[in-house]
Amino acid sequence: MGTGFFANSRFCKAQLAANGADFELTDVGDVDHNTTVLKAPPHVVHDFPTAH
Prior knowledge:
Blueprint: H1 2-17, H2 33-39, H3 41-44
């Protein structure tokens, strides 16, 4: 299941990058959208102090 969702994320990243966005995706595994919301914060929270 997650592979399809992450493929969609890659597509969205490409679209955003074409308009100047610069960010990294974090793959939290083969989980549904709601579980991603719970699993992702520990992987990305370290970026918040330096976000502009």
